[in-house]
Amino acid sequence: MIHAAMPPRAPLAMPAQDFARAPAGADAGTDRQDPIWRLAVFLPALAITGGVLWGLYGFFAMSGMTGFEYVLLTLIGLTFIWVTIAVSTVGVGLAGRLDAGRRPPAADPLDVALLVPIYNETPWDVFGNATAMLNDLMRQKGGHRYSLFILSDTTDEAIAAQEWDAFQALKARAPLPVYYRRRAQNTDKKVGNLVDWITGWGASYEAMLVLDADSLMTGRAIDRLSTELAADPKAGLIQSFPQLIGANTLFARMQQFSNIAYGWLLAEGLAHWARTEGNYWGHNAIIRTHAFASSAGLPYLRGLSGRSDLILSHDFVEASLLRRAGWRVRFLPRISGSFEETPGTLIDYVIRDRRWCRGNLQHLRLLTTRGLHPVSRFHLFQGAAAYLMSPAWFVLLVFWALLGRDAETNVISYFNEANPLFPNWPPAMTHIDSAIFLVVMYAMLLLPKITSALIIAANGKAVRLFGGRRVFAGAVLTELALSVAYAPIMMIQQTKAVIGGLMGRGGWTPQSRTAQAYPMMTLIKFHWIESMIGGLLFIGLGMGLVSWWLIPIAVSLAFAVPLSGLSAYPLARIGLSGLRLDNPLTLREPAIVINARTERAEMRARIEAQKIAAE
Questions:
Q1: Cβ atoms within 10 Å of 514's Cβ, excluding its own
Q2: What is the reported pTM?
Q3: Which CA distances in Å does 612 have to 3, 122, 165, 464, 609?
Q4: Does the pLDDT at position 405 exceed 70?
Q5: What order do you get walking across the sheet with 207-210 strand by strand?
Q6: Collapsed DSSP state (helix, strand, coil) of residue 209
Q7: Handedness of CA 419, 422, 426, 431 (dihedral sign)
Q8: d(Cα 72, Cα 116) in Å, to the nearest integer?
Q9: pLDDT single digits (tens) 12-49
Q10: What are the DSSP E strand ranges found in 16-174?
């Protein structure tokens, strides 16, 4: 049965955009922005990468350059530039923290629709979160008018029946208008779900705040986003910085600790250099409805096979189209009270990552879209490059493994020297030089995290929020060790995802919201490639053919199965607070999180009681 309880229709046209023709007269009203922050990010990154490549070129050129060595230099440059951009973004974030925060000027209140698209989710979790947000929102005095829409694409009839029961329970006690609509067909997935709402009811609402099924926002955060949008008539979208909650397993807590302890500095840097050319992450953001409808309608892409492909990672593209049409896209990381959940295990994370990889690789086909701002093009390219770097790292790993421990164990030396691609490695290019370079690379990769940790450690108030210096130091060391251990596994999995994405493989399955320990056979089937590569590296180490610096990578890959199993380990069983990766959101849970948990339990009890009564 298809249920719906919606207000009177108010259609708003949302035409598909033409990527081959830029809209006329697009002006975001920003005049000429000060380029200092962007120069501070990209110039140091280019300079450092150029210096590294020049130094390596000097090594290689001692014996004459070959095509093989030019390929190697290119790969090193491609991987190193993204590392240095992250480091310089942290530097900009540090400088940006000196800017005083501002309150938005007063503006007329808005009619805001809170949209929660769902697809076969656990009903009491979705409606419990919604209840907690509405109750918290009622305490705000911003004057904005809010309505909540649960937009269901659920295909499971049993879940859909529970959704309807949960909606009835929510509506009976909600302090604000709440509505529910279930589509008969899951046409175009989340994109189609939102388009259906915009073209059916969007004209009645000046703004829409898009949430995910696991999103949770305080009333203050929602009201602050609404006020910011009302005060900036040229803003088309304002993105908040979601923090991770509900992390009860080792892997989820690692992600949460990294997000809270380190992510704030990268977010601050991104906000400062992106300015009005920000990005959209698909949820926990407020959008001007008519701006989105008039400029962000997505066409189908013509696939290589000739078929029409849906744009999967739509959020980056929608942000680019909004900016192309002259609307500002802003990122406000200092608005607190925006939360989301994270996958609980390594396998769940990888499955979600595959979906994102396939969608982000589509962005490469959109780089030639007419009229995009250069920064928007960079966002699209960066989203794809984040995944393409894993194959690049993997190829570098293979190259350095083939270098061996010295000239006598250099596997490449067994090739025919008459081959023009044969690399004439200079005498100074030993395994020690390779190790030094990779130690520098690892240091650059970890520098953003270390910088954030040192800033927190130097601030007495901040470090107390993490449980004190000893607890915080233990958590930092634990997180760094875990991230180093899981990074090679993720490199292999993302390389597989890139290959599958380029071949058009991989489904768009819903995210798993509940952490579960997978059986051993599932772990083995999922990680057999990493285990095999790790075993080969250990064989090479035992034969003296592989450099000793590959030991950490070999251990990670060889033990991918137990590490994946460990990722589901429940944190409640760990006694030491440092090993639990405690952070401000676990030591002092926000009231909205506690309230949402209570509302979830009550909603579940109601639904199950109704099911028992019906039986």
A1: 12
A2: 0.91
A3: 21, 18, 13, 48, 5
A4: no
A5: 4-5, 178-182, 145-152, 111-118, 207-210, 285-288, 235-240, 328-332
A6: strand
A7: negative
A8: 47
A9: 999 999 999 988 766 656 655 668 889 999 999 999 99
A10: 111-118, 145-152
